[in-house]
Amino acid sequence: MSHLDCKDKSSLCDAIKKYLGIQMGIFPLAIIGALALTAPAYANEATIRAMLASKIDGTIESVFKSRIFELYEVTVRTREGVEILYVNEKATLIFVGNIIDASTGQNLTQDRIRKLESIDFSTLPLQLVVTTIRGNGRRKIAIFSDPNCPYCKRFENDLARLNDLTVHIFMYPVIKPESVALTKSVWCSKDRTKAWNDLMLKEIRPAAPPDCDTPINKILELGKKLGATSTPTWFLENGERYKGAVPLQRIEQLLDTASPKR
Fold first, then answer.
1. Mean pLDDT in the chain?
2. DSSP SS3 for 177
C-alpha cells in the first residue's frame, strides 16, 4: 500500500479540475464548468453516463434524478472511495461539493455518502483487532488506526473519556514505515490492549520485539478493501463510516444512535 496521511483526499475533484483546466475554491456547492454547448433539452441516465465517462477518474455506479433542485445525483467509485456529483437536467453543468440544509445544518451529501459506504458491522473479522471494553461495552466502534497518526491519538483519547463502550482497533500502519514495527510490537505483547492504550494514550512504546506472527498484512488488505484511505477511519455498529476526529459530544451522539439501549 502506498503512503497515506491522516487527511482526506479526493482524486475525483482533482481529475475534474485537471480536465477543465481551472482552480476551484472551497464552496458548499461549486459550479465548476459548462461541459457542452449542445445538449438535449432534458438529460437521462444514458446521456449523463456518456457525458461523464471520459471526464472522471472513476467508475459511475448510479445515476438518478434527485429531489434536490431537479438535479441528477451521480455516484462515482474512485480509488479513495465514493464521491457524489450533481448534474443539471440538461447535462451541461457538473456541481461538485456538499449540499447543506440551511435550516438544520445537515450535510445532505455526506449523509448520502455514509449510507452508500456503510458496511455490515457483524462481518468485521474481530479476531484481528485489539479490543478495549469500558463499562458494560454496550456501544461499539471499530477504528482503523495508525500509531503515528495525531488525529487517531486525539480521537482515542476522547473515546477514553466515555463509559459503556467497546473499542475495536484494527492496527493500520500506513503513515510511516516505523508504524509497522510498532503495531507488530503491540500484537506481540503479552497484554495487547494495555500495550496499545499505553502507546496511544500515554506515549509509552511497547517493549515486546516485533518478531511474532501478526495479522498486520491481513489488516492492510482489509483496510484497502473497505476503502480506508485515511486514518482514523471508523465504523459504528449500524455500519456507518466516518473519517477523522470529531468533537466528543458529537461522537457520543453518534454512538447512542448507532447502538441504542436494548
1. 84
2. coil
Q: In this structure, how many other beta carbons lie within 10 angstroms of the beta carbon of residue 151?
A: 18
Extended beta strands in 112-249, E state: 130-134, 139-145, 165-171, 233-236, 241-243
Q: Is 97 in the same domain as 127?
A: no
Are residues 253 and 133 part of one domain? yes
Give the per-residue pLDDT at 42: 62
Distance CA 89, CA 67 (A): 12
Enter the pTM of the model.
Answer: 0.72
Contact 132, 166 (CB under 8 A): yes
- Residue 5 within a domain: no
What pLDDT does 83 receive?
Answer: 87
Domain count, the chain: 2
Can you tell me the mean pLDDT for 228-242?
Answer: 95
Same domain, 253 and 137: yes
Whether 1 is in a domain gets the answer no
Q: Is the pLDDT of residue 144 over 70?
A: yes
d(CA 120, CA 262): 19
